[in-house]
Design brief:
The chain has a 5-stranded antiparallel beta sheet with strand order 4-3-2-1-5, sandwiched between helices. The chain is an alpha+beta fold and 183 residues long. It starts with 7 loop residues before the first helix and ends in an 8-residue tail after the last helix. The chain is elongated, with a radius of gyration of 19 Å. Helices cover 31% and strands 15% of the residues. The chain has 2 domains: 50 residues, no CATH class; 102 residues, no CATH class. 21% of the residues are buried.
Length: 183
Amino acid sequence: MIESELSELDYLREIERLAKAVTSAAAGEDWYADDDVAEGPLQRSVNALGRALLQYHFPLDGCVEEEDLPLVELAGVSIIRPEAMPMGMTGTYEQACARLGVEARPEGWSLWNTWGEGNLRVTMVVSAVDTTEGLLMNWAKGRKLLPVMPLPSQIAQVHEGWSGSPTFSPHGKKKLGLDGHAL
């Protein structure tokens, strides 16, 4: 692949992939992840590289062109799809879409539970399923990450109250007083 063909997001992903390969290769070494044992600048640099691998990049993560958009304080998210519905959500995918006032799409929808003015609980039904998957991957690894506001064309509906059985974000757990509690 020629470097000029890479988008900025693809470039970041490639750099992360290479950095992960370096740190994976170093993982078997006695000095890896322990600066007290690291003998030289290369070893210390590889350790620092491993600590700096903070996240998997995805659209709307706020790292590239959308960095000027405001962050969305998410309490949690869920994804509905024709082949997979979140636990606790009743009915079929088509019925859920009808309740949410959106068309049933093959790729599904993301439900972003957040807060509106005056801490009103709201659900944004967004088309950014890939962003939601990126958030879930990062949250599963303990990374406290919030996305930027989706584009207006990505927001299909906004409803009062929270929908679905969300996976809570680290931010949402803290704001709701659920830090350290099993859900």
